[in-house]
Amino acid sequence: MLIDSHVHLDDPRYDDDRTQMLARGHEAGVEAFVTIGCDLATSRAAVALANSHSNIYATVGVHPHEVKHIENGWYEELKSLSHHPKVVGYGEIGLDYHYDHSPRDVQRQRFREQISIARELHLPLVIHTREAQEDTISILREEQAPEVGGVFHCFSGDAWLAKDALDLGFHISFSGIITFQNATMLREIVQTVPDDRLMIETDAPYLTPVPFRGKRNESAYVKYVAEKIAEIKEGTSPSAYGRIARLTTENTKRLFKISQDS
User: Fold this and answer.
1) Residues 6+ apart with CB under 8 A from 72
2) Does residue 91 belong to any structural domain of this protein?
3) Angle (CA) 49 200 162, round 5°
4) Which of 56, 76, 200, 261 has the greatest count of CB atoms below 10 A from its CB?
5) What is the 3-state secondary structure (H, E, C) of 15-72?
6) Strand ranges in the chain using DSSP code E only, listed in sequence order
7) What pLDDT was estimated at residue 262?
8) Would you say residue 261 lies in a domain?
9) CA 212: distance to chain centroid?
10) Sign of CA dihedral 181, 186, 192, 194
11) Tell me, what DSSP letter sits at residue 161?
12) What phi and psi values does residue 141 have, to the nearest 5 degrees?
């Protein structure tokens, strides 16, 4: 069985077929989904979805693109939402210097604030970082983020970022990007990640893996990420796939304290 450790199930692109999409995921071997909060509205939606489905879990937090919109009361409501028993992480939070949708100084300050909240709540972090490696690692260290740990989601950085993340005790999650033809460096990094720190995700509806690249992504396609990692690490045998599916599921359950067995 598989877990899609990072998916945006509230996305409007699923409004017409969300139930069917979840069913397709289950048919593909996905036993649980972690749906991600990126601002106050999506955090509310993530918790609502988790509340209404036994195999959906949620995170809450504010993405670096959205931190410029944080207003009085947001953090208190996020803390309140986090007390729901199906909330398993805080994020996605971090730094994004590629798009700079929020000013960099605001991103850094809000990142620090949210790490502090996660530590207060004892929730693992879901980290987004793009073209901001040095600041991301420095802030995680300075704010004692290893106390709660977490995962660098949708990893697309270099070998140095992977090493820094692992040295901090974080997990690394790979998405459909590793199936892309030009992702040679990422496939090399996969080989360096210890088995007990490896996770998989879709980041759906984004980053659809080969052979469906260009179409809307969904959780059923996380199996293609598992297949590629198995191929990279061990080969194309069913036993290799089964081992990767099992260990990534165990890692996700352990990090997010998910006890469901289905």
Assistant:
1) none
2) yes
3) 125
4) 200
5) CCCHHHHHHHHHHCCEEEEEECCCCHHHHHHHHHHHHHCCCEEEEECCCCCCHHHCCC
6) 2-7, 30-35, 56-60, 87-96, 125-130, 150-152, 171-174, 198-200
7) 38
8) no
9) 20
10) negative
11) H
12) -65, -50
- How does pLDDT run across 124-173, given as a tens digit for each residue? 999 999 999 999 999 999 999 999 999 999 999 999 999 999 999 999 99
Q: Could you identify the residue written with the tokens 């693992």?
A: 124
Q: What's the rounded Cα separation, in Å, for the pair 197 and 207?
A: 22
Span 94-124, pLDDT tens digits: 999 999 999 999 999 999 999 999 999 999 9
Q: Residue 192: pLDDT band by 50, 70, 90 thresholds?
A: very high
Residue tagged 């397709």 (tokens): 24
Q: How far does Cα 174 stand from its chain's mean position?
A: 9
For residue 78, the enclosing domain spans 2-256
Minimal CA–CA distance to 204: which of 49, 29, 11, 42?
11
**Which CATH number is 20's domain given?**
3.20.20.140
- Residue 195 confidence (pLDDT): 97
User: Is residue 262 in a domain?
Assistant: no
- Report how many domains make up the chain: 1
In degrees and rounded to multiples of 5, residue 152 shows phi and psi of -85, 105
> How is the chain split among helix, strand and coil, in percent rounded to 5?
50, 15, 35
